[in-house]
Amino acid sequence: MSDIVTAGILVIGDEILSGRTKDKNIGFIAEYLTNIGIDLKEVRIVADDEADIVAALDALRSRYTYVFTTGGIGPTHDDITADSVAKAFGVPIDHHPEVVARFKERFQGAGELNEARLRMARIPEGAELIQSATILAPGFKIGNVIVMAGVPSIMQAMMDIVAPKLKSGVRMLSESVRANSREGDIGGPLREIANAHPDTIIGSYPFMDEDKKPNTNLVVRSRDPEKLNAAMNAVKEMLAGLKIAR
Amino acid sequence: MSDIVTAGILVIGDEILSGRTKDKNIGFIAEYLTNIGIDLKEVRIVADDEADIVAALDALRSRYTYVFTTGGIGPTHDDITADSVAKAFGVPIDHHPEVVARFKERFQGAGELNEARLRMARIPEGAELIQSATILAPGFKIGNVIVMAGVPSIMQAMMDIVAPKLKSGVRMLSESVRANSREGDIGGPLREIANAHPDTIIGSYPFMDEDKKPNTNLVVRSRDPEKLNAAMNAVKEMLAGLKIAR
After folding, report:
1. Which of A12, A180, A197, B109 is the most exposed place for a label (fewest CB within 10 A)?
2. Where does residue A72 fall: left (phi above 0), alpha (psi -120 to 50 degrees), or beta otherwise?
């Protein structure tokens, strides 16, 4: 188990960039990775364009332990993820015999196993399949890149299959407290606490509470439970002090 | 009016990458830009880290007509967007007199206009403010970069203020049709139509319909209404042909 395992996400699809489809995968994967001790460091969304996909993939895979892609592995002409990944890795891509065999079992009607569907069996050389009985078009893992479907339910099934095979780091722990204060009232003391607790990450998130008053959630994160506690105690003392001062 | 106006989005915030907060801004801005004739080409999400913000900002602002950022303009230590933007542009940043004057009117209680709140008045030199009576911390536009809040309601108000000032291109037109077919059944003929109509973008989006059957939405996009019509007619003829063949 390494100390820090990092990840990037690459979402592929014109439909996300046009606003037609609202992405639901980033939030899911982000939370999933946090829970298994992998730090998500960056997300990119690009169009169905080979050059854009390859450039983003190369930037992310050289920088992070893992890259998760979603989208572009279906049977139509705009599904170019597998080919783009093969190009990025400089490996050939062809119909994977195991996937073709499964498709032959599954599609038995006349013309059902057509060229479009066979396209979903195209897998870059050396990739490991991500599949199950309920997944039609498989995802795959090649090097540190995990290629998944764009349809949320299928992507989620693929995450469950691939997650146990990943290195995971020391999990980032997190605790939050509702400040019952406006962010601007606590910004000063909070900065001092953040400076005094360098191995923690302290986040401040304003929201409108049920009384329509500006309120703030404070989140302390750390890999070290003692450091997390120390910082959270300092935050709580600060908040208690504000209450007395009022 | 130029023919093609492009944009990138940069979402800034640890809370999105940890999965704690689910982004609601990308989808909104994407749809907004499509409606005003601006092509969203790329989105990046990065952490509250100056080097990461500057690198992403430089990559996007050199590549696209506009860059829209969200997040990181509040009063706390983790709000570093304005400073990072100033750094990227190589300009000084200081308290903007107009914003300070407004804050002085607004915050009159003892200690209310503290250092934390004054932080929200820090604006890079040469930037134009994005503000209104209902917006506390202003956004700003510097060069081709538009800096907005992360809180969706405030970001949306800022989009409405800034949008009329932007160049807009020839609007991308879009029409969609429900195929009542599985994606794999139409992938072949659809590719032929896409090849025969090069000035259109044809997207294929599978979904589960109300009868729990795999179905597909087909979307044709083009800036030219005649080319859009020609491609959409070809798609509809293809779908009608499938129906007869059944």
Report:
1. B109
2. left
pLDDT of residue B1: 46
Contact A190 B76 (CB under 8 A): yes
The residue ranges of every structural domain in chain A are: 6-165, 173-245
CA distance to partner chain A, nearest, from residue B127 (Å): 23
* A128 class by beta-carbon count within 10 Å (0-12 exposed, 13-18 middle, 19+ buried): middle
CATH code given to domain B5-165: 3.40.980.10
Confidence of residue B195 (pLDDT cuts 50, 70, 90): very high
Domain A173-245, CATH among 3.30.420.130, 3.40.47.10, 3.30.1370.10, 2.170.150.20? 3.30.1370.10
**Selected residue of B9, B17, B174, B218 to mutate for chain A interface (largest A Cβ count, 10 A):** B17
pLDDT at A1: 46
A150-175 pLDDT, tens digit each: 999 999 999 999 999 999 888 889 99
Nearest CB to B184; choose among A114, A174, A207: A114
Q: Which fold has domain A6-165?
A: Molybdenum Cofactor Biosythetic Enzyme; Chain A (3.40.980)
Q: Over 60: is that where the pLDDT of B242 sits? A: yes
Q: DSSP letter string over B7-68?
A: EEEEEE-HHHHTTSS---HHHHHHHHHHHTTEEEEEEEEE-S-HHHHHHHHHHHHHHSSEEE
- Asked whether the domain spanning A173-245 has the same topology as the one spanning A6-165, the reply is no
Return the SS3 of A16. helix
CB contact under 8 A, A15 and B205: yes
Which residues 4-43 of A have a C-beta within 8 angstroms of B? Answer: 11, 14-23, 26-34, 39-43
Mean pLDDT (chain B) is 94
Does residue A100 contact residue A118 with C-beta atoms inside 8 Å? yes
Contacts of B112 (CB under 8 A, 6+ apart): A184, A185
